[in-house]
């Protein structure tokens, strides 16, 4: 049961109400965006919620069982808090979001939480963005058990891999831009292929804060799987992390981390299921 503040509960009991919907969006990079459907800014708990007349919530669905409930959000790509460029770059994907109601004539009277969850991937169409707010039960869809695989199931440097990345990261700057997919990095001296399937985290330039994946490293040249959302410029600074193709051989020879290898390279494959004596 939701607890409703006394002042707001009294207002809800009135025949006519003055309610506004508010959105509190906490991006994964720590930036907080607060918006309201009211036509004027509202101050709630010392936080200013910016008026955004183009923001709309629709297709709300909530279930009593443990299946995933959702709420679709749509808005015009013009709000100061939801810049189109940030939406296109995926900076709002996975953001934590609270949706609540407030009496706009008495914002200090308390709020009523309507929905809490995370923001799904943002799409754009004809100048309008759309995103699905996934409820807390979305977490129950994630697999929590291990499955057999020949490749390692950990990510390089995470809590299961346990390998420190200090020796496998370089901070470098772009020395030349060949095309949207390809850049040169002066000072890159590792063997060819060292950064294949590695990762770039951009620190400066138009892509600052974003991550790109490396397809191929050859000499001082890197080729990306896809170009970042914004053009790369000479001088853009990045942290470049070595690639891991998740095989036992690479885990041993490149990272010296076999003790934490999370794959099962010696488990019989699907062919063993249909094998029978005398087949060989």
Please state the average pLDDT score: 82
Please state the structural category.
Answer: mainly beta
H/E element order: HEEEEEEHEEEEEEEEEEHH
What is the molecular shape? extended
Overall number of strands: 16
Question: Helix amount, in percent?
Answer: under 10%
Strand content: 35-45%
**Low-confidence parts lasting 5 or more residues at pLDDT below 50?**
64-68
Radius of gyration, in Å, reads 25 Å
- Helical segment count: 4
* Gap between N and C termini: 65 Å
User: Please, how many domains?
Assistant: 2
Q: Major sheet, described briefly?
A: 10 strands, mixed
Can you walk me through this structure?
- This protein is mainly beta and 280 residues long.
- It has 2 domains: 6-138, no CATH class; 166-258, Elongation Factor Tu (Ef-tu), domain 3, CATH 2.40.30.
- The protein has helices at residues 6-12, 84-88, 248-253, 271-274; strands at residues 19-26, 32-36, 42-44, 47-51, 56-61, 70-76, 96-103, 111-119, 123-125, 128-135, 169-179, 182-185, 199-202, 211-218, 221-224, 237-241.
- The strands form 2 sheets. Strands 1, 2, 3, 4, 5, 6, 7, 8, 9 and 10 form a 10-stranded mixed beta sheet that branches. Strands 11-12-15-14-13-16 form a 6-stranded antiparallel β-barrel.
- The termini are far apart.
- The model is unreliable at 64-68 (pLDDT under 50).
């Amino acid at each position: 049961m939701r607890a409703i503040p006394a002042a707001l509960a009294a207002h809800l009991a009135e025949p006519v109400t003055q309610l506004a919907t508010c959105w509190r969006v906490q991006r994964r990079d720590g930036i907080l965006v607060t918006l309201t459907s009211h036509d004027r800014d509202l101050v709630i708990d010392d936080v200013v919620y910016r008026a955004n007349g183009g923001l709309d919530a629709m297709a709300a669905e909530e279930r009593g069982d443990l299946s995933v409930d959702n709420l679709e959000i749509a808005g015009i790509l013009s709000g100061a808090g939801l810049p189109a460029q940030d939406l296109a770059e995926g900076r709002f994907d996975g953001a934590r979001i609270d949706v609540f109601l407030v009496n706009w004539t008495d914002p200090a009277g308390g709020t009523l939480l309507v929905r809490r969850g995370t923001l799904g991937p943002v799409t754009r169409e004809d100048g309008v963005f759309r995103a699905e707010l996934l409820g807390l039960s979305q977490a129950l869809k994630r697999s929590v058990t291990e499955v057999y695989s020949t490749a390692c199931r950990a990510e390089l440097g995470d809590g299961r891999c346990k390998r420190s990345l200090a020796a496998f990261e370089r901070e470098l700057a772009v020395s030349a831009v060949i095309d949207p997919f390809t850049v040169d990095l002066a000072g890159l001296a590792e063997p060819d292929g060292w950064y294949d399937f590695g990762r770039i985290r951009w620190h400066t330039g138009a892509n600052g804060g974003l991550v790109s994946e490396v397809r191929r490293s050859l000499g001082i040249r890197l080729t990306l799987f896809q170009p970042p959302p914004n053009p790369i410029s000479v001088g853009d600074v990045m942290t470049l992390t070595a690639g891991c193709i998740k095989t036992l051989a690479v885990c041993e020879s490149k990272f010296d981390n076999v003790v934490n290898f999370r794959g099962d390279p010696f488990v019989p494959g699907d062919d063993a299921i249909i094998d029978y004596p005398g087949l060989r």
